[in-house]
Amino acid sequence: LQKDNSYKKKLNFFINKPIIKRCTKCILPHTYPMIKFDKNGVCNFCNNYKKQDFLGENKLEEILAQVRSNDGRVDCVVGLSGGRDSSYGLHMLKKVFNMNPIAYTYDWGLISDNCRRNISRICGKLNIEHILRASDTQRQRNFVKANISGWMSRPVLGMIPIFMAPDKKFLYHFNRVINENSVKLGVFCTGHQLEQREFLIGFTGINQKLENNQNMYKYELINKLKLFFWYSKEFLLNYKYINKFMFDNLLSFYYSFFFKTKDIYLYNYLKFDERKVEELLVKEYNYEFDSKFGTSQWRQGDLHVAFMNYVFLEVAGFTEKDNYRSNQIREGYLDRQQALEKIDADNYVNPLLIKEFCDVININFYDVLKKIQKIDKRYNYELVKTI
Which of 9, 60, 102, 304 has its Cα between 20 and 30 A from that of 233? Predict the structure, then answer.
């Protein structure tokens, strides 16, 4: 594909330029679910936003001090995807807070090769044991394929999180690794509010207030129940979801919303400066970024992300990067003009990356993208041809 560029002749990859109204303070578009604008054009998400209340290093140290070993024995388990957030978090726990962690990765069949190499580099240099748990890889990929194929027959944006359902068993294995190694603490290197994405739930019509990028276990019970009944309704309306992976989907919902893990979210405590983080990782660990993921390396390494973002961009005129940049504006990392300058590059979804994902789960790249392009848009647009 990369050598002959034949896909350019077979597929008009981006054929429409969204005509959208954006918030005058952040850059969220009018197609964002549950968005409202005041008389000044400022959205309700900006008007209701509260900056993240970081708990701080002292509070984190209080927690770590209770479990820290003084003889080199393992004292915590750290989730490690090979992305920048978890890689930096592992560095901080080992080098700054003097913890003795084990790194844990759940391979659900969609980890990129460069993230695997990053995991090897960082664990090797830090002299940290790495535990990899994996289910039947081909079965997991078939699970993803079945959910996407089902979704294509009734493309409802609120159902897109089902693409990630096979990943949710990582929570189960995370607890097992903690118990097997007799430690009392697990650490997820997430929790900064920049990653908050209300639209994933908003497209179901449910309004769940998110704070400090809380985990789904902490969602309001009434909203968990609403989500369960909403997903159940969609399954009943789409017979293609009624397949051998039905129980797996149910189990994924349970792991997401009702399975409690023994963990803390590292970035509920520590601030996250992406420029400094990336500079440190390159300098200390020869960290490998992947240009296919674009100018923003957030979520680098998850092969399904480019596909999901393409669907959102094609149908709703925005991606999760619009959300990320808007949160950066609200937190004071960027001004609106800087965000607008970045978002065009952010939202270029590389067709090579989508092709790689489609090949991995064995769906036809051209057929799927043509079907997505035919889905009714939530915005007006003008035709353009970029490739």
Answer: 304
